[in-house]
Amino acid sequence: MKFVKADAEKNRLDLIPPRALQLVGWVMTYGARKYAPGNWQKCTEPERYIGAIFRHLVAIMEGEILDPESGLPHIGHLIASAMMWHGVMPPEIFEPGKCQSVVHPCSTPTKG
Q1: Which residue, among 91, 108, 104, has the nearest Cα to 48 in the 3D structure?
Q2: For residues 108 and 59, which has the higher predicted lDDT (pLDDT)?
Q3: Which positions ≥6 away from 79 have C-beta within 8 Å?
Q4: What is d(CA 82, CA 78) in angstroms, rounded to the nearest whole number?
Q5: How far apart are CA 68 and CA 109, in angstroms?
Q6: Contact of 89 with 41, CB cutoff 8 Å
């Protein structure tokens, strides 16, 4: 009998590169030691994570591989920051047609 597994529509977490997952784990461990485990979940200003994403991206673009403070690769901090931003944003903003602004979710843009 042939093996059959009906999981074609399931999330393929096995496709995440293990090295990237380990790196994000190290970055999150660093953050937990520096602040507190789960401290990122208390963030009420999601734009702070957008700022961190850009700072780490600019550092990479300027040729700096390792973050001088943590000693860990900037790319790990960038990925972790993006994951934390995603984690503090209201889930409904990721539904098509629900919200316009990613920095201030579900806010109405002011007219100039």
Answers
A1: 104
A2: 59
A3: 20, 23, 24, 27
A4: 6
A5: 37
A6: no
Those residues whose C-beta lies under 8 Å from the C-beta of residue 52, and which sit 6 or more positions away, are 77, 78, 81
Question: For the chain, which residues make up each domain, given as ranges?
Answer: 18-36+43-88
Residues 6+ apart with CB under 8 A from 81: 49, 52, 53, 56
- Average pLDDT over the chain reads 88
| Size of the chain, expressed as the number of residues it contains | 112
pLDDT of 112 higher than 60: no
Six-digit token string for 8: 């074609």
pLDDT on residue 28: 98
Q: Which residue has the tokens 């963030």?
A: 43
pLDDT-wise least confident of 7-11, 19-23, 28-32, 76-80: 7-11
DSSP string, 31-61: HHHHT-TTGGGG-S-THHHHHHHHHHHHHHH
